[in-house]
Structures are given as structure tokens and as C-alpha cells.
Amino acid sequence: MQRSMRWLSMGLAIGLAGSLAACSESKSTGAATGTDAGGEIKVGVVLDITGAGASLGVPERQTVELLAEQVNAAGGINGRKLKLIIEDNQSTEDGAAKVTSKLLNTEKVDILLGASRTGPSLAMRPLAEKAEKPMISFAANAKIVEGSKWVFKTAQNDRVVLEKMVDDMKAKNITKVAVARDASGFGEGIPEMLTEIGKSAGITVTTVQKFAPDATDFTSQMLGLRDSNPQAVLIWGIPPAAGLAQKAYKQLALNVPVYQSHGIGNQAFLDTAGDSANGLLAPMGRMLVADQLKADDPQKAVVTKFIADFKAKYNANPSTFAGHAYDGFMIAVESLKKAGTDAVKLRDAIEATSKWPGISGVFTMTPTDHSGLTKDALMIVTVDNKAWKVAG
Amino acid sequence: MTDLLQLVFSGLAQGTIYGLVALGFVAIFAVREIVNLVQGEYAALAGLAAISAVGAGLPLLVAIVCVIPLVVGVAVLLERMTIAPVKKMTPLTSIILTLGVSTAVKAVMLLIWGPEAKGLPNFPGSDMTLGGVSIRSQELWVLGIGALVAYAVIWFYEHTVRGKSLRACAEQPIAARLVGISPRTATVVAFAVAGFTGAVAGIVGSPIYLSSWQSGLSLGLKGFVAATLGGLTSLRVAMIGGMALGVLENLVAGYLSSGYRDAVAFVVLVLVLLFRPNGLAGKTSAVRV
């Protein structure tokens, strides 16, 4: 009797553990069955839906679901419906690799989208290259597409962001910069790149502090920044960590200007950082300041429509990450329209994307540039009272 | 010097949260020899529920007063549903069982509140700088409330008849029953205390450290490490151990590398288990373990 109770309790424990696994399992939407060539088009999407990247992955999932609905409602692509297969990588590299293999080998998707962050995207890249399937990442680090044949990405290159930032520092005669960076793939190589790009402007990095993407206390890092006597501080991370770092920065009474990366473009950042975000400087895509754009801006129409559609469905403003997902998804759709699902032709069509106005900028892909954006895609943006404003 | 003080101070605040979670581990283990891995989840649940209550328009204080009994209730309910039916409970069974429950609670929180981390608004007060050390008013709240709760729990276990009867249950279950102490009531009270300390930790910490469906995992782990410092049976050592762990983490992050912060707790755990498995106080007990 006692023995059976013990087995029962163990069984219960295992059953409960299984329930979480069930929660993180795939969610697929769209039309059912019929997988012969020429049938529905399978789009595999890998996103950071839970874990440290959740504030990125969730709006990205909403975006691809919204867009797939729109495309299917309009009759699909050349008469073929889209089938979305969305997987959660739980913000981990091994999670991304696992679900990517599943999408490529079991689901046999026609194109891969994602992941939300650099680390998981880097984990996906070799799998896409090996399977010779086109992949479009929504993450930032240039390493994702450096020398790649099959992999593209839509977030602004960190190099482009740093170039824009260095221009701004140059204009303000800032030469000594202290850096606090995300310890994961997103922050990898940033201080080195800043040193390299800033060389001509005489910019040097006084110290480099790292923080985990899920860190909650930033005292030690901010003290490190303060002690290096910088003229400006660069915090390179994503919310909530970037917001908490911004808060700690103000609390420790550092008063030099603070730059943040393009990784902070969502409401979660504004909520976490609160008033401490006032006055920060960040190179951002145009969507955050859509209402302040000039009427002749080539992106104005597409950005305004996307914001309206997103608001209508989810009753919230889309973040810049939603924008990266929009760009990735729509570039895929445009290319599928032109080339169909033949992997080689599809890849070539993506690479031939030229002067296509998206949310994050006007994209022109080339065989050597699989990211497609220059620093013109960015504006220096600041925060005033929990709202984004064009700086200056 | 200012740096050192700054690191120590913010470490103390973080450590108080660990200490409160550790108190919950001890509150239960001292009574029933159950390692309750749901402990961290109480904190996450309290933080998230309080955020929702504030979001629904309740004043902060009212939200807190509503949420704490709610979490205590959940703690007791989970005990009645999962611990009580088990006739022969060993520490190992309890670990497997509560691990499962904690996973289920996490999944439910993920479904209700979604994956994003959120924070409660700061408690009233303004931040200040004292001798170059920046002090967040919320950290003072954490320290103050933490000390108060720790004192109350220790006093309850050591100076009230009800508290003493709980410990009697652990030491002599049969004798305790003979003199009219119900092990069943004792377990319920122990889980209520654990739910209470967890809920307080989750609420006072939420404005600084945020709450999410998975924040209970690392809180639980660190609270557990702090509790092992006291051999899982000393409330005092658990509380002080939690605070020391917070300070140690901050010092390692400040003077070595912030990448090692999360490793500190595990190194401490390994060292304690290797050299002082009965806790730092060092009493060897034939009954325990």
C-alpha cells in the first residue's frame, strides 16, 4: 500500500512535469492538410516566446500571425495558402537548434524565419545552411549573416547602429565611452566594434562591463562604469535587463549622457525604466516615431498601416521587434510570390530584394550584404515622459 | 571604499529576499522533513498577483493585504492536495513531488500572466545618497520588512506554544501525537508560514527585481542554498545566510566578474554539502538526514 502510494506520487510528479512540456509545444495555425508540391507553403518560425527574450518573441509571434492571416485572407500566394508553424526556443541556443531540426526534417518547411535574438539565430544558421533552406533572422548581430549563403536578417546590423551612434558622439565631442553590454550573443564584440568604428573620431572605450540577459541587479556594473570616468555611457542590451540597467544608472547618480542600443524599442523598456529613461539617446528605426515622420518619407505609408493593423488586432502598439518580424515575413512573402518554393530560386529572390520599403528601413540585399540596411535606416531617438521622440 | 559599501548594501537587500525564501524552506523542513521546491513559486505568484491587483486599480497596500492571504491559501491548498495524501513521506519523495508541483504552478503562471517580467510600483519614499552610497528607498523597505518578518517567524517557532508544538512534531512525532499535537495541523501551519514568507519576499522584491513566471526558480535555488547553510533546520542561520549570499554574489560580481554572480550560490552549495552537511552551526544530529 505504502509502496503504491509512493509510485502514485512519483507518477503525479512526472505527469505534472509533462504538463509544462505540453505548454511549450508547437502551435500551428492556418489551413490544414494537403502537403503535395504546389500545395500550401510551409513557413517555419522559431521565436524566443518564453525566457529572457520574451519581450521580443511575443510581439513577433503576434506579427507573423497577423500577416499570415492577411495573406491567406487575400487568397494566399499565387493561390497557395501559407501554413505557419511557430516554435518556441525558450530563449536558448539548444532549444533553437532542436526545434529548427524538427522544422527542417520533420515538417519540411519551405522557409525558416527567426529567431528573435542573436544567440538562438546563430544556433540555427548552420542547420539552415546544411539543409540548404533560406532563413531570415529577426536579430541584430552581423555575425548571423557574415559570409552566409542561405541566411538573411532584418534587424539593423549592430555595425550600422554603432556607426550612427559614433556620428552622434562625434558631433558632441565625446571621446571616452564606458560600455555595459549584454553577456549573450547580442552584446558579443560590441566594444571591439565601437573601438574600431570610433578610431577616426578618437573614441576610446574606458571599461567594459557585462550583464546576463536575465540579470536583476546592476550595481556592480554601474560602479565599474562610474569609476572609469567616461564622457558617455553605452548600455547594450534588451528589456527588461536594459531597462533595469538604465534605472540603476540613474540611481547611482551617473550624469553623463547614456546611449542605448536599438534593442530597447518596446513598451517593456519604457515600463521597466520609467522616468530614468528620460533623455537617453538611441539609434532607432522610424516606426517608434511614426507620427513625427515627414509626409514624403518612403516608409511612412507602410509603417502607418502596420501600426493601425496591429493596434486593431491586439490593442497595443507594435514594438520595433514586431517591425523586424514584419520585414522578415514580408520579404519572404514578396520573394515567394516571385520565385515559388524552389529553395534555390527563393534564396536568389530574397537576395535580389531591392529598395523595398519595410518597417525598419528601405531594404536592398546584395550577395555580400544579407542584412540590407544602412545607417540611413536609423534616427537618433530619445525618451520623454514614457514616449519616444526624435532627438535634437 | 564607497564601491565596497555600495556593493554590500545592495547585496544585503537582494540577500534579504533570499533569506525570506530560505525561512520558508526551514519553516517546513523543521516540521516535516519535506524539501518544498514550490517555495520560490510562492514569491513569483505573490509578485504577479499583486501587479495584477494594482493594475486593476487597487491601491498598493490593499493589493498587498489581499494577495498575501491568497498566496498563503494557495500554499496550504497545494499541501492538502499533494503532500497530505502521501502516507510515507521521505525527503526524496518530497523533492520529486514538489518539483512536479512547482513545474505545474510555473506553467499556470505562464498561461495567466504571459512570459514577460513585470514589476510592482515602488513603495512610497525617495531614494537618497549617503556618503557616496546610493540607497533606493525600496531597498530600505526590503530590509525593514524582511527583518520584521524574520523576527516574527523566529519568535513564533521559538516562543509560542503553537510554534514549539510544531517542532515537537518533527522531533518526536509519536510522542507529540500522544500529548495531543496533530501532525496534520502542524503541516498546514508550516506551509502557511512558508507561503507567507515567500509572498512577502515576492512582493517587497518585485519593484526592484521584477516578477515573472520563472523568477521563482532562481529565488528558490538561492533560498535553498541559504537554508542548507543552517542545515535546513535553523531559521536564524537561513536568514543571515541568505543575506550573506546576496552580499557575496555582489562582491564576486563587482570584483571578479559579473558573469560569476549566479555561480556563487552553487559553489557555496557544493562546499556546504562537502564540508558541513549539517549546516554551519555544525551540530551533528543522529535523527536528521
UniProtKB/TrEMBL annotation, chain A:
It holds the Pfam family Peripla_BP_6. The keyword Transport applies. One of its GO terms (biological process) is amino acid transport. Residues 40-384 form the Leucine-binding protein domain. Residues 1-21 form the signal peptide. PROSITE patterns: PROKAR_LIPOPROTEIN. Keywords: Amino-acid transport, Signal, Transport. The keyword Transport applies. InterPro entries: BCAA_transport, Leu-bd, Leu_Ile_Val-bd, Peripla_BP_I. PANTHER family: BLR7848 PROTEIN (PTHR30483:SF38), LEUCINE-SPECIFIC-BINDING PROTEIN (PTHR30483). Belongs to the leucine-binding protein family. This is ABC transporter substrate-binding protein.
From TrEMBL, chain B:
The chain crosses the membrane at residues 7-31, 51-78, 90-113, 140-157, 186-204, 224-248, 260-277. Keywords: Amino-acid transport, Cell membrane, Membrane, Transmembrane, Transmembrane helix, Transport. GO terms for molecular function: transmembrane transporter activity. GO terms for biological process: amino acid transport. It is a multi-pass membrane protein. InterPro entries: ABC_transp_permease (IPR001851), BCAA_transport_permease (IPR052157). One of its GO terms (cellular component) is plasma membrane. It is found in: Cell membrane. The keyword Transmembrane helix applies. Belongs to the binding-protein-dependent transport system permease family. LivHM subfamily. This is Branched-chain amino acid ABC transporter permease. It comes from Candidatus Phosphoribacter hodrii.
